[in-house]
Amino acid sequence: MTRYSRPKIRVVLGLDRWEEDACDEPFTLGVTGRILPPLHQLTTLISLRGVQRSYSLAARAAAGAAVLIALAACDLPFGLGTPSTRALEGGAEASLRGSSFEMTGTYTGAGVSLPVHAASGARTGSPAPAPASDTTWTIDLQLSRPGAQHITVSGTNLKVEVVVVGGAAYFRGHQFLADHMGTDPLSQDLVKAAGNAWWKGSAGEVPQLQDLTDGATFRATFLGPAVTQRTDHVTVDGIDAVELSGPRADVFIAAQAPYTMMRVHMNKKVVIDGISDGDFRYGNFDKDFGVAAPKDVIDFSNLSTLPPIYTVVSVDTSGCLSPCVVSALLKNLGGMTAAVAKSTVTFTLTDSVSKRVLGTCSTQVSPDVGYNATTTVTCTFANLDIQQANAATVTAAADNPGRA
């Protein structure tokens, strides 16, 4: 065994050289001389060479896998492995041109101003002062193409909800309606009768946010030449995104295909679509929001769609004897749509000299009558001194509860 120790060691060491250059041959002497190892050494050489080659291939495969793992954990140079800016912008535009999406966020501005057109003598001019231009508003906009929208805008003590379907718009918001109607009694009667019901308006009165919701307009406003800086691997709601920044806004687009729009944050002092300081998020792409026209809608241009609005035309005290029976002629300025309760007329008997109230009497209006129709209600004062009644004045006022 001792005599073959050295040749075995030389064979193993020689393998590295053979692997480096497969054309080289071992143990070459001079130009033509060649020494061949004994047969049993040659067998050992072939066996060891096969083992070494298998080991070398396995080592190389393992090293290659390690390189791939390392590359996956690191950014590739020269922007390799990241989407192009053109692809990102195209994806953002396409997502805003899709069948539907939702935009939520906040902005600063004077809010919304949607006039109400009433067919009666109610005033809609000189409404309550508009909110300050620095009021912060919250918006939730669900857009379903070709023309359906559901929008909720809320601010300090004010909320309005809008549904747009088929070119018609429907609004809901009791305080919003009160602020946009006049302060005269008839206008406030209309507000009370409407309650928190939906009323019909024009779709042209709904604020348009084309720069924020239309794909091509959004791209022209915020992307393309408007982008001056790109930042990869930013996070929006836990999702990897790319930030494209410019003088108007910072735009965040999903880093993975199809590169949907995620967020836009407007810069200070930038005013777009009449709003500023906007910070909006996008999502729920291609979702069916189920936007549909509401039922039991009030049309202020057709007051017959309202619940009853009774007004007192005259009071008759000729029957105020013993007992004192009084009556009032009423006119309905609304319709016959169901209200939360029946309208009530309250009669008040007041001393003409001292102005002291001597008694009251209430009665419900039943049955209801239609728009512009009249009806009469009567009421009896109980336990009333007839002598006091002869020197008193009787007034009547209608209470119309309207819708909830």
Characterise the protein shown here.
By secondary structure, the protein is an alpha+beta fold. It folds into three domains: 2-72, no CATH class; 91-210, no CATH class; 307-399, Immunoglobulin-like (Sandwich). 24% of the residues lie in helices and 33% in strands. The chain has helices at 5-20, 39-72, 85-96, 174-180, 185-194, 210-213, 215-222, 386-390; strands spanning 28-29, 33-34, 100-109, 135-144, 148-155, 158-165, 168-172, 199-202, 229-236, 239-245, 249-254, 261-266, 271-272, 275-283, 310-316, 324-332, 344-351, 357-364, 374-381, 392-399. The strands form four sheets. Strands 3, 4, 5, 6, 7, 8, 9, 10, 11, 12, 13 and 14 form a twelve-stranded antiparallel sheet that branches. Strands 15-16-19 form a three-stranded antiparallel sheet, with no helix packed on it. Strands 18-17-20 form a three-stranded antiparallel sheet. Strand 4 and strand 5 (148-155) form a beta hairpin. Mean pLDDT is 80; it is low at 1-36, 38-51, 65-76 and 123-131.
